[in-house]
Structures are given as structure tokens and as C-alpha cells.
């Protein structure tokens, strides 16, 4: 510990901490823009400048370490003037269309301008850089007229081991984009959306598909069926001011019904089906000398990463479609047939914590009924936008249940949204099926938690099953290179593209740096899912009665011919 003074008051703070961290502990939030803890700590934007007694000039609090006897001043006229000037300079090249900006209300630049009392946003008006736009991909849009060059997106993409964006040109003409100014769709972006969540302004936003959904709902000839991913319920409430980690499943269902969806289903049902197929596939590979480790395939950003960077390992991927796609496929086949609905009249919509799902729905071999399994995928943020547009008072909505049939699911499916959840769900089923029992202990706690890499060995049917769980593509990359070199001997590997899993997906509500840098958002959201699992009577996928109805219709057990036709897919090498 070291003793320092902040604004004349004495504090004992952790040695090695930065001024920013020490001040925060003392209840003083120093403003930042480029800072994103553990992702982008470059001291570049100069928003966090503070005075330090004896220093020749102001210093950047986000990178400047404390030392014994240091005296810091965070709120002097010199500091205030510097912060204002920085903001006014940023505004001089910013498009400032706050009223129509998707990030209005959550924009960190807007908040700081308010907090710092900026009264003339045009003080340094003059030339502005080109402000290029990139609308080339299915999942995001870049509008550099709103970019403040903080490089948080660049760092987030590097953290994902993809690194397809960076600074082009120099000085006044600096812009963030891809090498040689190629559109994003030309490079090997994996569509994870982590760059969007890192962006403090409206420069990066998800491709908005809400109007397509509204048009479908308003079309009297269409039956619009929605499914919601496990992780959405654990985060949607944040958009309406609820604490991080509030499970809003019931209100979400009520909102979807009031928005006009004809049926409200749960992707969790698809997740139960995924477990049936994936556990069967695993058992089959073990018994018949198939490719091991089997690697989970439900995270489309991860699948794309594997196809781009580890094509030799695509054979290890489970051939199972993701829960989103399985649910979509069954809506247009089994459910349509059961209800006597013409599948071509169905518009299948998914609400996902993920923007890569917008890409996944367009993949080849994802059309069981000869029609796309899912027609439109929107993110948690887009659903929130639809709820706001309809002026629904979210907090006052009642709690409602999903519609029957594909609204029935187990706790195993709910935990899919957190890193380790898919593997835990698969183990619950594999252990019971292989041992022919109904194990009372369903919790595999060693593979829970938000760490990027976890491993364990479990005894299943007399066999030592070695498992690994990774989330975040940097961690995935490390593990994959070991597997490729034959240096890892796992039987099952779960990979989730986003750090912490889907709860931290690129389509989830965006928390500002001041929150996400100091709160484990992933852990809080994951807890909401584990709590729901614990409260459920059914906690194993193979105990879902509707799953069995489905297999009866398919005319065989998990892994049967029809299941392969409807629920499995292929990859590009
Ligand atoms: Fe996920 Fe999945 S867990 S991929 O993260 O397997 O997006 O939530 O829906 O499909 O179930 C996402 C979440 C989601 C699928 C499931
Ligand atoms: Fe990089 Fe993911 Fe953004 Fe693509 S979506 S640019 S991979 S961070």
C-alpha cells in the first residue's frame, strides 16, 4: 500500500494502481474516453488528465501509477480547462447529430459533454475529415463521422485475435478501417461485434433489422414466430434501467406478445435439442473412433474463426446446428406440420445477444424446410429499441410464460448463455445416457466462472473424460494451436467466441467503460442464468418432454436420419 493525497485528502491505496483506479476507490470518477480496462490502456485521448504536484505537465491518470507521497489534483481550473478543450476539439470534427443517434443516452462523449458543461459545440468549427462509412457486412455499420479515434474497437478486435481494423492515414486524415481501406466484408472479420460494444459513441452500431420485423408483423399474410436466446433475459432489463444481472424472462415474453408476435418460443428448447444431438455425436465419436476432441459449434463467430484460421480443425467441430438454427428448423418443419401451417407463411425471428447470428442465418445448409431456418435475427439492443418504439412500459409489464411446444425447456439449456454452460449441459446428458441412471448431482462447478480457459477431468461411464472450455478468441486461438500441434488431448472442447460467453455477446446492452472496467458484468449476467437453472424442476435436456415429442415425429432417437437432415450442418474448409 502507498499513501497519497487526492485533492488534499489522505488515502492509503494499493501500490501499483493507477491514479484513475486510486481515485475511483476514493469515490472520484476521473473522466475517460479511450480507456477500457485490460483491453485499451493507452493514455491517448487525454480526457483523464490530472495535476500531480511536482510534475512538469498534466498527466494521464489511466496509465500513471501512484507512488508514496504523491499529491494529485483532479478538479483544478487547469484540469477543467484541459478536459473542456479536449471535448471541444473532438466535437469540431464530430457530426453531432445526437437526436437521431442510436447511442444517444448511452454515448460516453455525449455524457462527458453534459458533465463538463460544454456550452458551445462549434467552438473550433472548421475542416472535417472524410468520415467514411462502411455498411458492407451483415452485422455492423461503421460511421467514422462519429468516431473519436479512441482505438477501443481496434483493441477489442486484437483481443479477439482477429485484428482486421486499425488506423489508416496519419494526422488530420487518420481514420479507423481495414488495411488498404477495404470494406469489412472483404476481410476475415468473424462478426463477433465486440468492437461495437467497445465503441464509446455511435461510430459502430449493429445492422438494424427492426423495421423488417415490424413489416412482417404488420403483414396479415404472415405468421411471425419469435425465439429468444438464453442470454437475452439476463441483460435486456439493463436497457430499462434495471440492475445488471436481473432476469427479465417473464416481462420479455410479455413485451414480445404485445409487440404482435404470433408465437413466443424459447431458443432454450433448441438448446435442449442441441444437447441431444451433440451428446449423441460425442458418444458415437468415442465409441467408433471419430474425430476428437469434438468442439462445440453453436457460436457462429467462433465457427467463422475456425473456418478462417483453423480450417483443418473444422472436422472436429460438432456437425450440430446452433440452438437458434435448430429451433428455426423445427419451427418450419415439425411445428408447422403439427399446426397445419404453410411454412412459407412463417417469418421466423430470433432475438440474440449476438450479431454474428445475423450472419449465421445466411449460411449454407441452414434451411431444413427448403426455406431459411431463421429469416431475421435481431440483437438484445434491437429488441429494446422495438419495445421503446412501441412505448411499452417495460418495468410495469406482467410476467408471462413462453408459448407451449417450443417454450418448454430445461435448466441445462438456460446455462448455454454462460461460458461452460454448453459443456455442463452436454455432460449432464452424456453421463445419464451412458450410465443409464438419473444422476442427482447435475452441477459441474469446475467449468463454471468467467475465466477465459478452464479444464477438468470427469469420470463418465468408467472413462476419464478430459474437457476444456474457452471463451474469447485469443484463448480459443491458444488452445486450437495446441490441439493442431497434437499437444492437447481433450475429448470435448467448448468454445464461445465472446469473452465470458453469450452473456457478453456483441448484441447485448452496452455498458460504459466506467461500469464495465470495474464490474464483472459477465459474472452478474451469468449468475442470473445459473440461478434460473437451479430453480427449474427439469435440469437435463433429455428430460424435456417436448424433445421426445419431436423425436417421435422424426421417427427415431437422437442422431437418427431425419435428425441429421434437419438439425445438422456443414462447414467450409
Ligand atoms: Fe448463445 Fe446459443 S448460447 S450461441 O451464446 O448455443 O447468441 O444466449 O442463443 O444458438 O441456446 C447466442 C446465447 C444462443 C444458440 C443457445
Ligand atoms: Fe473484429 Fe469482431 Fe469487430 Fe469483426 S466484429 S471487426 S472480428 S471485433
Automatic annotation (TrEMBL):
Q: Where is the 4Fe-4S ferredoxin-type domain?
A: 138-167, 180-209
Q: Which SUPFAM superfamilies match?
A: 2Fe-2S ferredoxin-like, 4Fe-4S ferredoxins, Fe-only hydrogenase
Q: Which UniProt keywords apply?
A: 4Fe-4S, Iron, Iron-sulfur, Metal-binding
Q: Name one Pfam family in it.
A: NADH-G_4Fe-4S_3
Domain annotation 2Fe-2S ferredoxin-type: ranges? 1-78
Identify the residues that the record assigns to the 4Fe-4S His(Cys)3-ligated-type domain, covering every copy: 78-117
Q: Which PANTHER family match?
A: NITRATE, FORMATE, IRON DEHYDROGENASE
The entry's protein name is (2Fe-2S)-binding protein
In its UniProt entry, the species of origin is given as Anaeromassilibacillus senegalensis
Amino acid at each position: 500500500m502507498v499513501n497519497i493525497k487526492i485533492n488534499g485528502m489522505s488515502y492509503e491505496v494499493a501500490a501499483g494502481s493507477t491514479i484513475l483506479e486510486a481515485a475511483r476507490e476514493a469515490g472520484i470518477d476521473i473522466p475517460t474516453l479511450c480507456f477500457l480496462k485490460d483491453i485499451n490502456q493507452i493514455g491517448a485521448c487525454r480526457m483523464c488528465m490530472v495535476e500531480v504536484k511536482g510534475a512538469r505537465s498534466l498527466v494521464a491518470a489511466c496509465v500513471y501509477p501512484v507512488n508514496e507521497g504523491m499529491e494529485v489534483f483532479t478538479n483544478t481550473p487547469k484540469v477543467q480547462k484541459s478536459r473542456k478543450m479536449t471535448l471541444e476539439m473532438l466535437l469540431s470534427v464530430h457530426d453531432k447529430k445526437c437526436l437521431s443517434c442510436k447511442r444517444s443516452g448511452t454515448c460516453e462523449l455525449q455524457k462527458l459533454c453534459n458533465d463538463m458543461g460544454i456550452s458551445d459545440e462549434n467552438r473550433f468549427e472548421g475542416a472535417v475529415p472524410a468520415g467514411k462509412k462502411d455498411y458492407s457486412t451483415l452485422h455492423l455499420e461503421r460511421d467514422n463521422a462519429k468516431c473519436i479515434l479512441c482505438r477501443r474497437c481496434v483493441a477489442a478486435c486484437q483481443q479477439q485475435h482477429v485484428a482486421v481494423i486499425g488506423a489508416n492515414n496519419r494526422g488530420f486524415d487518420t481514420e479507423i478501417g481495414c488495411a488498404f481501406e477495404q470494406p469489412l466484408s472483404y476481410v476475415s472479420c468473424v462478426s463477433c461485434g465486440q468492437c461495437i460494444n467497445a465503441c464509446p459513441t455511435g461510430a459502430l452500431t449493429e445492422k438494424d433489422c427492426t423495421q423488417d420485423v415490424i413489416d412482417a408483423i404488420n403483414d396479415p399474410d404472415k405468421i411471425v414466430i419469435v425465439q429468444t436466446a438464453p442470454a437475452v433475459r439476463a441483460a435486456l432489463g439493463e436497457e430499462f434501467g434495471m440492475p445488471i444481472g436481473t432476469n427479465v424472462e417473464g416481462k420479455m415474453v410479455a413485451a414480445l406478445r404485445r409487440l404482435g408476435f404470433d408465437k413466443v418460443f424459447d431458443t432454450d428448447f433448441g438448446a435442449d435439442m442441441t444437447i441431444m444431438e451433440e451428446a449423441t455425436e460425442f458418444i458415437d465419436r468415442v465409441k467408433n473412433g471419430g474425430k476428437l476432441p469434438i468442439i462445440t459449434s453453436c457460436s457462429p463467430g467462433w465457427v467463422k474463426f475456425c473456418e478462417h484460421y483453423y480450417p483443418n480443425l473444422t472436422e472436429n467441430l460438432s456437425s450440430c446446428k446452433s440452438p437458434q438454427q435448430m429451433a428455426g428448423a423445427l419451427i418450419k418443419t415439425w411445428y408447422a406440420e403439427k399446426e397445419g401451417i404453410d411454412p412459407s407463411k412463417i417469418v421466423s425471428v430470433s432475438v440474440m445477444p449476438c450479431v454474428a447470428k445475423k450472419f449465421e442465418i445466411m449460411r449454407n445448409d441452414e434451411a431444413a424446410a427448403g426455406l431459411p431456418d431463421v429469416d431475421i435475427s435481431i440483437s438484445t439492443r434491437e429488441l429494446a429499441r422495438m419495445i421503446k418504439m412501441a412505448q411499452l412500459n417495460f418495468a410495469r409489464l406482467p410476467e408471462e410464460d413462453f408459448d407451449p411446444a417450443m417454450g418448454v425447456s430445461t435448466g441445462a439449456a438456460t446455462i448455454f448463455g454462460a461460458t461452460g454452460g454448453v459443456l455442463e449441459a452436454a455432460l449432464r446428458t452424456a453421463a445419464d445416457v451412458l450410465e443409464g441412471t438419473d444422476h442427482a448431482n447435475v452441477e459441474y462447478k469446475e467449468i463454471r466462472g468467467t475465466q477465459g480457459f478452464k479444464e477438468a477431468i470427469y469420470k463418465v461411464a468408467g472413462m476419464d473424460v478430459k474437457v476444456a472450455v474457452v471463451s474469447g478468441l485469443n484463448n480459443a486461438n491458444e488452445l486450437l494451436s495446441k490441439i493442431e500441434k497434437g499437444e492437447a488431448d481433450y475429448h470435448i472442447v467448448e468454445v464461445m467466441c465472446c469473452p465470458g460467453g453469450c452473456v457478453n455477446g456483441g448484441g447485448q446492452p452496452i455498458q460504459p467503460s466506467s461500469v464495465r472496467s470495474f464490474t464483472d458484468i459477465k459474472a452478474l449476467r451469468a449468475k442470473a442464468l445459473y440461478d434460473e437453472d437451479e430453480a427449474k424442476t427439469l435440469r437435463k435436456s433429455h428430460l424435456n418432454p417436448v424433445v421426445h415429442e419431436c423425436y417421435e415425429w422424426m421417427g427415431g432417437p437422437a442422431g437418427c436420419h431425419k435428425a441429421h437432415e434437419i438439425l445438422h450442418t456443414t462447414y467450409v474448409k
